[in-house]
Design brief:
The structure is a single chain. This protein is an alpha/beta fold. It has helices at 20-35, 67-70, 86-94, 109-114, 150-157; strands at 39-43, 57-60, 77-79, 98-99, 101-104, 122-125, 140-141. The strands form three sheets. The chain has a three-stranded mixed beta sheet with strand order 1-2-3, covered by helices on one side. The protein has a two-stranded antiparallel ribbon with strand order 4-7. A two-stranded parallel sheet has the order 5-6. The longest helix has 16 residues, at 20-35.
């Protein structure tokens, strides 16, 4: 994986659009999780160059007392929570107030079908960030409102209007 500034060829992880505040939010969420008992399983090296980066981080032993589990971190952090069953995982996913996106990994066809019950704008099964320009979704819960992607992106950027012109001819 390569870290670097946005629009640089060959880069896998970009900076936070020169946004120190978002980088600090991510760092705060990771520190909060570790302070509450999470384990850092993997983490990249801190960046000392130009831009605002947070190293990609994998956390385990996470729970719902941690910001990474209750807020939208919007950074390169993967909190991993192991649950006893797929059904319990679905219940936990449905129990959150957030619903931008979700990912389920399974080889069971019944679980793949059941993933549709996750209340999120986008649900990926056995992939992450898949799709294309035709993908249409609307976030669920407190993750926002308004459809985006595909035709909805065009619709959001335009406004329909009607113009009525009275006849200038004598009747």
């Amino acid at each position: 994986m390569f870290l670097g500034l946005r629009k640089t060829k060959g880069i896998d992880i970009n900076d936070f659009k020169e946004d120190r505040r978002q980088r600090d939010v991510v760092a705060h969420h990771v520190a909060d999780a570790v302070d509450r008992g999470a384990t850092v399983r993997a983490q990249g090296q801190a960046w000392s160059g130009k831009g605002f980066f947070h190293p990609a981080t994998v956390l385990t032993d996470v729970d719902d007392s941690m910001l990474v589990m209750t807020e939208e971190t919007f950074g390169p952090v993967a909190p991993v929570k192991v649950v006893p069953s797929f059904e319990e995982g679905l219940a936990e996913a449905a129990g959150t107030r957030l619903g931008l996106a979700a990912t389920a990994y399974t080889s069971d066809p019944e679980h793949m079908a059941a993933a549709r019950r996750i209340p999120a704008g986008v649900v990926w099964v056995n992939q992450w960030q898949g799709g294309g320009p035709e993908m249409l979704y609307e976030p669920a819960g407190d993750s926002g409102m308004g459809a985006t992607g595909s035709r909805a992106a065009y619709d959001a950027a335009t406004r329909p209007a009607s113009v009525h012109i009275a006849s200038t001819e004598d009747a």
